Amino acid sequence: MSDKKATLAIEGENAIDLPIYSGTIGPDVVDVGALTSQGMFTYDPGFVSTAACESKITYIDGGNGILLHAGYPIDQLAEQSDFLETCWLLWYGELPTKDEKESFLKVITYHTMIHDQMTSFFKGFRRDAHPMAILCGVVGALSAFYHDSLDITNEKHRSISAIRLIAKMPTLAAMAYKYSIGEPFVYPRNDLDYTENFLYMMFSNPCEPYEVNPVLAKAMDKIFLLHADHEQNASTSTVRLAGSTGANPFACISAGIAALWGPSHGGANEAVLNMLNEIGDVSRIDEFVARAKDKNDPFRLMGFGHRVYKNFDPRAKVMKKTADAVLKELGVDDPLLAIAQRLEQIALEDEYFIEKKLYPNVDFYSGIILKAIGIPTSMFTVIFALGRTPGWIAHWHEMISHSHKIGRPRQLYTGPVQRDFVPVEKR
Ligand code: SDX
């Protein structure tokens, strides 16, 4: 914190001093709490300029395209770390020692199975239900099966719930996929690592042996890692708001999954692939770029733009390299990648996108990789939710571990002033 202050002179009123706090890096914040006593609120729809909390987990510098998890740059973690190590980093704020990592991997491995009665829970859904609808439902239902450790004031209970969520998300995600294609559920295997296990549960079947391609497993792990956390984005803020009421962690994560589903947020990766398919050919790119620039056309270039990044999303850079590597390994010549690369080139040269600082974001290339791995488009946001789970649960844990208030924003009211009721015969 600091002893700096802002002075707010309100017309006709006495000026008031508002404390300014400084973080370790990044913008200072003005504490506006004193405004309430002046009978005023701040007004910031979409929370464009609002710091909703203090956090030590992730730092983003949108102007310079920087993303740090507990100080470690995302490109270094993507190149040298792995998803489960990043899960530990987000929760504890430090990279695990060799022993810590070994015991963490073991405890995750031995929590990948779900309560067998949950399989009948799946069977209540229609086969053509969107996998995100299924995931939302079954993650929320985890609190109906794992209620032995839901005292959120107990650090051990919080840790057990976090382990259960990180360990079981791949199993639940793969089950949602298998259910949608009418194939039997595949149980996790304890001899496979986290991401190999996910691909095994997604693509193997009981009729023949299945070998996981190590290049695809590495690419999948990188995709999980790149999605692990991203500061106070919409779904993480949803988890924090739900958690501030004292709701159990499974309900909070289910709320985060619901928020992530929107095409402006985590649903964008699915929307990017649908857009590339709709464009269909590089010759039609100009038509779609024109539509994206047309104020009267609601169409936006999915995978471009970001509330915080006004430069390249550092995750998109890593994702682009991974896409090239995966397509080369598979010998896949995906015409959608050619459209994506041409679209990126045109957009980045276009005055509209330059002026509005619209760059490719994390969702722009991830879909190309997921499609090459064989993941169906409807599962793309499920993959995002799986990757984001450690970030969500780390923010929930950080909030619950410290004294916090229930989140309760106010409003600018523009509705009718008080008036008396009119009986129906007099209307
Ligand atoms: C994620 O918050 C996070 O960190 C999210 C995320 C994470 O890891 O959690 O990074 C993941 O959600 C990435 C974003 C995925 N969404 C998309 O790719 C959907 C397409 N992008 C847009 O919908 C938009 O860019 C947002 C939602 C991402 C950001 O919107 P903002 O910050 O509210 O900005 P805005 O809508 O006010 O746009 C500013 C201007 C507007 O023009 P003007 O009204 O000023 O004239 O830029 C235009 C917009 O019309 N604009 C676009 C555009 N994005 C913004 N125009 C065309 N195509 C686009 N994609």
Give the uncertain stretches in residue-range form. Answer: none
**Number of extended strands:** 6
General form = globular
**Order of H and E elements:** EEEEEEHHHHHHHHHHHHHHHHH
- Helical content stands at 40-55%
Estimate the strand proportion.
Answer: 5-15%
* Biggest β-sheet: strands ordered side by side in the sheet: 1-2-3
Helix segment tally: 17
List its salient traits.
427 residues, mainly alpha, binds s-citryldethia Coenzyme A
Structure description:
The protein has 427 residues and is mostly helical. Helices cover 50% and strands 5% of the residues. The chain is built from 17 helices and six strands. It has helices at 74-80, 83-92, 98-109, 118-122, 131-145, 155-181, 194-203, 214-226, 234-243, 249-260, 268-279, 285-293, 314-330, 335-349, 351-355, 362-373, 380-401, and strands at 5-8, 16-21, 29-30, 58-61, 66-69, 72-73. It has a three-stranded antiparallel beta sheet, with no helix packed on it. It has a three-stranded antiparallel beta sheet with strand order 4-5-6. α7 packs across α8. The longest helix is centred in the middle third of the chain and has 27 residues, at 155-181. The protein is globular. The termini are far apart. The model has no long low-confidence stretch (mean pLDDT 95). The structure holds s-citryldethia Coenzyme A (SDX).
Can you give me a brief rundown of this structure?
The chain has 427 residues and is mostly helical. It has 17 helices and six strands.
